[in-house]
Fold:
Amino acid sequence: MTEYEHQLSRRGFVRTSAAIMSAGALTAPALGRLRGQRDDTLHVGLVGCGGRGTGAAAQALTADENVVLHAIADAFPERMSTACNQLTDGFGDRIAVDRSRMFAGVDGYKALVESDVDVVLLATPPHFRPMQLEAATRAGKHVFCEKPMAVDAPGYRSVLESARRAKNNGTSLVSGFCWRYNAPERATYRRIHEGAIGTIRSMHVTYHTSPLAQVPRQPGWSDMEWQLRNWKHMIWLSGDHIVEQACHSIDKINWAMQGTMPSKVTALGGRGVREGEASGDVFDHFSVIYEYDDGARCFLTCRQQPNSSNDNTDYIMGSDGVCYVNGWGPTHTITGRETWTYDGARTNMYQVEHDELFASIRSGKPINDGQWMADSTMLAIAGRMAAYTGRTISWEEAINSQESLSPESYAFGDLPPITPPRPGFTPFK
Ligand SMILES: NC(=O)c1ccc[n+]([C@@H]2O[C@H](COP(=O)([O-])OP(=O)(O)OC[C@H]3O[C@@H](n4cnc5c(N)ncnc54)[C@H](O)[C@@H]3O)[C@@H](O)[C@H]2O)c1
Structure:
């Protein structure tokens, strides 16, 4: 199952939770919804009302019965109505979004984070994550933010600052790198950290999948509107699929290597089969080599091409054994000093993210995923930089890059023509 097939099944989850929640719990008076009387109800604001944002809101509402959806924001008003209608089917009057708290437009998040919400869910295209994380943490809100965290190095540095701010605030910052919240992966990576396969010598992670749906330009749409709607194919908005999608697998390299960063990154990539305007400027395949000071080498291969064999597995080779992880399979096995297969509980990682977020808020013991969620994102960005330029790039160069993918303005008007990068010719900035 690909990430996006899984996304569809999460939509199914929204419907399922409708049936579960309407079975009684929703009518409980404990919600204490009278505004102006702050009780222990947590007020949630959702920024980005697409597939993942709607799913995340459902998971927040499922995590804690004293949660209401209080405010929403989206670049496009119709997205807000669709999300509200879908969620109301499942959660009834816990979808308490007054019209005055529906914030349309690319900048709508600013008003949302300044409103009286306690928790902000960030699920827009990744381009906007650093600025939204900054605004949410400056406003002192608890945050759930979808992966990836940024699309360029200035964004990475900004996310690290926001993570520090959240720590100083004592607020929670939970990331949507969902495998970190899945019981089988937690058990497997814990064993690897405990030495079950010895020292990691190499790791190969794959994200070989099919292309994502394109949104063709419609008459009357400006460049900005079309690119926002077709964001998964626009480098400046998505960071390319290595950042937007394969970051999940790259995060597992970071997890296995326990936060040690590579000293240099080399990569290949290109557009083998993508064509047509709606395919934007993103590549359709990447192959990345991360080299570490201790001699370990970790590899990512990722592909979005049709009619090809798919795989989404982590192959980890240690000095004393090997480990295979495929969360969809599911396969979690270790062969080496010991032979082990995970046979514990299976969890819904998307739900666990929110269960742990809301439990942390209730207990006053904040979670802060900041450093590793930013680093995993930057590892993906560094791989993209190396592929686009054709150059081996040091980690220091990558994290200090001054290249910003931001447009001059977010006004719904013209944008410069898009041109896919050319390895060997695209400069490193
Ligand atoms: N963890 C996972 O498994 C997983 C799965 C799918 C998506 N995601 C991530 O979730 C995020 C959203 O993905 P999606 O599939 O829901 O996309 P989507 O296109 O369905 O939804 C994105 C929404 O954001 C809105 N938007 C765009 N710019 C905005 C802005 N500046 N302010 C407010 N709203 C804005 C869009 O109009 C759209 O409604 C992405 O970062 C994606 O990588 C994570």
Notes: Residues 3, 7, 47-53, 73-76, 79, 106, 108-109, 123-126, 128, 146-147, 176, 178, 228, 244 surround nicotinamide-adenine-dinucleotide (CB under 6 Å). The chain has a mean pLDDT of 92.
